[in-house]
Design brief:
With 1162 residues, the protein is α+β, with helices and mostly antiparallel strands. The protein has 35 helices and 34 strands. The strands form eight sheets. An eight-stranded antiparallel beta sheet has the order 6-7-8-9-5-12-14-13. It has an eight-stranded antiparallel beta sheet with strand order 16-17-18-19-15-22-24-23, sandwiched between helices.
């Protein structure tokens, strides 16, 4: 049953979270058709009752309660239960006499099957469980229905684990990384809704409940929900069971729930009526509506259907809310002596046995303007994944639903929806991109780099290998010198083999080359190739069409010498075999190279006209396919189909190199077409190709063994094309090559270990990344993702942040506090290098800034950062040394916090504002329970932004300020592309903007990771204060006041901090703080108060020596630039905020006094 889709307006109020998907009421009551052979009593009551023996004029139970003795004729009934019982009629007779302790019979369970013919194309389970015991009493039937419906055999056990990493994490290059946003620009996804079904153990399920049962369940469920979360329960209108509203909800409440699309409808589908879900309607039923995106229905088709919704693509938020809500309800039920009905094998038990397991379904409403033109494509994408789809209520919108299934854990329905969305949105994005204005390619050329070969590097590093292989020869007589001599410019690996025995004879060299340069160690094995059906299915919904695509595959015939052997007879035999096979598989014409005498039909080889024909037919930005005329000529040539869509080289480096190409073609479609033709070719000539168990297809160049696919693509990325640094980074990241004779051409050779599907997906990811970068550059954005320290990758340096090397690196030339501490006590390193905090932070991550950068002898930095709150205890032996040296705060010292503005001294000086131009306060805070800035992942950083921005907006109220995400940050829904260029310029001019870090110390500390995501500036409407989110700390606040306004500015700061602390606590968070170190910070220099007080002074007469003496006496420091002097506090820890500010006030007052005296003397 699929719900009538909500009006999925993107700007409308959030949709319902937990409405079970029930069909909209039909215009007339459904007609229940009795099966042939079932007894009918014409005088029976035609309407169903709670305890009815007769249902809609058909006998289901005799008045004595015994089950119908014979199985009714279920011909024309299409449920899975009908199918099972037709195949095993003895099962019906075996189970017919059985009852549960509450009296539920098999007849009750079979009502939907017996009374409703069902839908042949979309059959239901055909069963309804009257209570939890049905799953054991009638288990033989239920097990077979589950196996028929879901492939869920009786030996399978439901996975009850909750693994949120399936949603929050992804894989890239074999590494686990934060999952990328599904719809980062908020362009397509309107909302997500996730719901879960639950029933109470020991109480009949909805189809068999009495009025008292319903009242009891309503009471315990509603009270539990209200105890978990602030919300409101609305009993259905006309219900008399809820004491607070004995007549049910008001008309106004009903209208509001209708507007929110969460009002519970009366069951009306044939299956629902046959299951008696409408019995005693509307008593004992109602809707709970929470304050944070949760909705629950009580006693509709389950005791509880709880759901959660989220606007946009926030699957994680919706799922976490649902799971937290379920846990809270479960705890409240336990307090009341109840628990959810579940079994170890089947998971949570539901009214419809087909929905057991997690009982969780996930739906999403999406705008797809381009794909809406191709509904068959949408249908095939959904059918492959077992996902339902329906129009979404507005033009070009669709609702996709992954329903409950016992084979899926609680997060798996969401994972399936996410997978579908990623593929559909990638296709939609590409279709929209292709419909833009045609691109005119630039004329500049990027020359491909020339490098030494992997083989030459291995032999240079391991000189013993060449000596070891000096006397080795392959079956064709090829030596190591011959393997190397012809290959320096011809093959990627620097090797060119003459037959398949070379892989064994020169195995030590092959293994080293593949392991070192192609990440394919000896323990690895090339995956088995997929079937053509699997290849085709893999690219449905994710394929990308490009202006030009060419894909080729290499193969060698087993038992024949390869071209490198220069065996004329073998080459002629291969030529004859392959031209015949090609002619049978893909009709065309063969052109031997000019000067060849081996092909009798064209003695002397191709003519100049033939060569021009090949050039014209295969001409593209990737070059034509005319083979070079190198010796020997016999046995070599080019095969070309009449349509020009295929070509083949015979006896070039390999026996066969088959090409498929297309203009405006799909990459995946071209790969499928090529592999299908290769299979057809192989069958036509009954060919056996050279293959190895470990390496797959064997080729002349070992680097191309395996799948032996090569891709050449034209891309419309003119702005990326102009950015050589970006192209170089992309080439390194994706192991592709770029050329630009007339436009951007990308080539990629699939390495060993990568299947055809894997290689094609790799190419598609590279294309989509390039297209994404092109779009960003088109709107004037900056590119950070591919730069070390600013993208996904940590800054390359002396340390890997995930683990310390066994031996302490040489720090003799390093100038930082951490280097000095470790040099002075190397045992500290040995003691701490293997330790980890509870969140996984390592010593390496903390000390990387001080080890990656040697620093400056005259200006040493601390060189250490905290990755989380626990670092200060787990790595205390090192942190304590540095904190004491840098801040004079020993391990046993206490820190006092005092932010009471009434304690600030008021000094009557400089009342005319002649000397003190401005006062500024700056301090930082970090949220407990999350890593510090140096170790945040994408989702954690976004959570920091969410909590702090919400708190800041609450503090200022309407119109009191606004948040400006950094340009190109996509994490803040109201500004999905970040601040505008004009806003950026305005903030920069006012000094409120912060930029990406560029110092090696900051980059090594991890402060630039995933820049600029989830970072921004909050600015007050009065411009008297602003806050930085996710710069060096989670939060930094700056308050400034003109003139001598120390107390007024501090009052503002204190007010902000106190208000923020309260609102953060409302979000179940708090700021990191302890008695020893005060407020915690990423940089140890900002511990304690973290307070920096700055006074900008105009001083013309006071001598520097006098100024320094005054500053030292009040623990201040100063700097001068012309007539402007900036004075700051030196101490941040060990003294309270009030003490620091009062010391600053007294110091500045004394400075102003001495300046006046000097001015008068002058």
């Amino acid at each position: 049953e699929t719900a009538a889709p909500p009006a999925a307006a993107k700007e409308a109020a959030a949709p319902p979270a937990a409405a079970p998907e029930t069909a909209a009421p039909p215009a007339a009551a459904p007609k229940l058709m009795p099966p042939r052979g079932l007894t009918v009593d014409a005088e029976a009551d035609a309407e169903p009752h709670d305890d009815a023996t007769w249902v809609h004029g058909m006998l289901v139970q005799t008045p004595g309660g015994s089950v119908v003795p014979d199985l009714p004729d279920l011909t024309g009934h299409h449920s899975f239960a009908a199918k099972v019982l037709q195949q095993e009629p003895g099962l019906y007779k075996e189970l017919a006499p059985s009852k549960t302790a509450a009296g539920v019979t098999l007849a009750t369970c079979l009502k939907p099957t017996v009374l409703v013919p069902g839908n042949e194309e979309n059959p239901s389970s055909g069963l309804v469980a009257g209570d939890a015991e049905c799953y054991s009493v009638f288990g033989k039937l239920i097990d077979q229905v589950l196996e028929a419906q879901h492939g869920w055999g009786p030996d399978r056990v439901h996975d009850g684990t909750v693994d949120m990493t399936k949603v929050t994490k992804g894989k890239r290059g074999g590494r686990t990384v934060p999952a990328e946003p599904i719809d980062p620009d908020g362009k397509y996804v309107h909302f997500i809704e996730i719901r879960a079904r639950r029933n109470l153990e020991g109480v009949p399920f909805v189809p068999c409940m009495t009025g008292e049962d319903r009242k009891k369940v309503e009471k315990v469920m509603a009270e539990s929900l209200l105890a978990v979360e602030d919300g409101q329960y609305f009993a259905l209108q006309g219900s008399s069971t809820w004491e607070a509203t004995p007549n049910g909800m008001t008309d106004e409440d009903a209208a509001a729930l209708v507007a929110d699309e969460v009002l519970m409808p009366k069951p009306s589908s044939p299956e629902a009526l046959a299951s008696s879900l409408d019995a005693d309607w509307p008593h004992g039923r109602g809707i709970y509506k929470g304050d944070v995106g949760t909705v629950a229905w009580i006693n509709h088709d389950e005791h509880l259907v709880l759901g959660s919704w989220a606007g946009g693509d926030d699957v994680q938020g919706a799922l976490e809310r649902l799971l937290e809500g379920l846990q809270g309800v479960e705890a409240q039920l336990s307090n009341r002596g109840f628990k959810f009905a579940q079994s170890e094998r089947l998971g949570f038990l539901t009214t419809d046995p087909g929905a057991v397991g997690s009982g969780v379904r996930c739906s999403v409403v999406v705008s797809l303007p381009e794909l809406s033109k191709d509904e068959p494509f949408l249908a095939s994408s959904c059918v492959e994944r077992g996902i339902l789809y329906a129009p979404g209520g507005e033009p070009d919108t669709w609702k996709f639903t992954c329903v409950e299934n016992p084979s899926m854990a609680s997060v798996d329905t969401a994972v399936r929806i996410v997978g579908l969305l990623r593929e559909l949105l990638a296709t939609e994005d590409q279709l929209e991109f292709d419909n833009r204005k045609p691109w005119v390619p630039p004329a500049e050329v990027i020359a491909p780099p020339v490098a030494e070969t992997p083989a030459s590097r291995v032999l240079a590093a391991k000189t013993e290998l060449k000596a070891q292989l000096a006397e080795a020869k392959s079956a064709a007589g090829t030596t190591i010198s011959e393997v190397l001599s012809s290959s320096s410019a011809a093959t990627p690996s620097g090797l060119c083999f003459s037959d398949d025995s070379c892989y064994d004879v020169f195995s030590p060299l092959v293994e080293e080359v593949l392991a070192v340069d192609y990440d394919f160690p000896a323990s690895s094995k090339h995956p088995a190739e997929a079937s053509l059906d699997q290849v085709g299915a893999a690219f449905v919904g994710v394929d990308v069409e490009v202006p030009f695509v060419r894909v080729d595959v290499r193969r060698n015939i087993a038992g024949k010498a390869w071209p490198r052997a220069k065996n004329g007879d073998a080459a002629a035999e291969v030529e004859k075999t392959l031209t015949c096979a090609l002619g049978a598989a893909i009709p065309g014409e063969y052109f031997p190279v000019a000067g060849s005498t081996s092909f009798s039909e064209k003695a002397g080889g191709m003519t100049a006209d033939d060569a021009n024909k090949i050039r014209k037919a295969t001409h593209s930005v990737a070059g034509d396919l005319l083979m070079s005329e190198a010796d020997p000529k016999d046995g070599r040539g080019v095969y070309l189909t009449h349509a020009g869509d295929y070509a083949a080289w015979i006896n070039h480096e390999d026996h066969l190199r088959l090409f498929a190409q297309a203009t405006k073609g799909g990459v995946g479609a071209t790969v499928l077409k090529l592999l299908a033709t290769l299979q057809k070719l192989k069958a036509a000539a009954q060919l056996t190709f050279s293959e190895g168990d470990r390496l797959g297809a064997l080729t002349a160049d070992p680097a191309q063994a395996g799948t032996a696919l090569t891709f050449a693509l034209e891309l419309q990325c003119p702005l990326v094309l102009k950015n050589e640094k970006l192209l170089a980074a992309m080439a390194t990241s994706y192991r592709v090559k770029f050329d630009s004779v007339v436009s951007l051409v990308m080539t990629y050779s699939a390495p060993c270990g990568q299947s055809a599907i894997g290689a094609t997906r790799h190419v598609l990811r590279a294309i989509k990344q390039l297209q994404s970068l092109e779009r960003r550059l088109a709107r004037g954005g900056s590119i950070f993702e591919l730069e070390d320290g600013l993208g996904d990758r940590p800054l390359e340096g002396l340390l890997d942040p995930l683990a310390c090397p066994e031996k302490l690196p040489d720090l003799s030339n390093h100038h930082s506090d951490v280097a000095e501490a470790l040099r002075g006590n190397p045992q500290l390193y040995d003691q701490l290098r293997s330790a980890r905090t509870a969140s996984g932070a390592t010593l390496a991550r903390c000390i990387k800034p001080g080890l990656d950068s040697e620093g400056h002898a005259h200006l040493p930095v601390a060189g250490i950062v905290a990755a989380d709150e626990s670092c200060f205890t787990v790595f205390a032996p090192l942190f304590d040394v540095i904190i004491n040296k840098r801040l004079q705060h020993p391990p046993d010292a206490k820190h006092e916090t005092d932010i009471a503005p009434e304690k600030i001294a008021v000094e009557p000086f400089d009342l005319d504002g002649k000397y003190v131009k401005e006062v500024t306060y700056r301090t930082g805070r970090n949220l407990r329970g999350l890593p510090l800035a140096s170790a945040l992942d994408v989702l954690q950083r976004r959570e920091v932004e969410r909590v702090l921005v919400k708190s800041l907006l609450t503090v200022v109220g309407d119109g009191g300020g606004d948040y400006y995400p950094l340009r190109d940050s996509s994490s803040y829904a109201p500004k999905p592309e970040g601040m505008t260029q004009e806003e950026e310029e305005k903030l920069a001019k006012s000094g409120a903007l912060f930029l990406e870090p560029d110092s090696k110390v900051a980059l090594a500390a991890g402060l630039g990771r995933h820049w600029p995501d989830a970072r921004g500036v909050f600015v007050s409407a009065t411009n008297t204060w602003h806050a930085w989110v996710n710069e060096e700390d989670h939060l930094r606040i700056m308050v400034k006041q003109p003139g001598n306004a120390f107390k007024a500015a501090f009052e503002r700061l204190a007010e902000l901090l106190q208000a923020l602390e309260g609102h953060v606590k409302e979000a179940d968070c708090e700021f990191m703080h302890n008695d020893h170190l005060g407020y915690l910070a990423t940089d140890v220099s900002n511990l304690g108060t973290g307070l920096r007080v700055t006074a900008t002074l105009a001083l013309k007469h006071l001598a520097a020596d006098d100024l320094e003496a005054i500053c030292q006496s009040h623990e201040l420091v100063f700097s001068r630039a012309g007539e402007e002097t900036v004075v700051r506090n030196r101490r941040v820890i060990g003294k309270s905020e009030v003490v620091i500010v009062n010391s600053m006030v007294k110091g500045v007052a004394e400075i102003v006094k001495r300046e006046r005296e000097c001015a008068e003397a002058a």
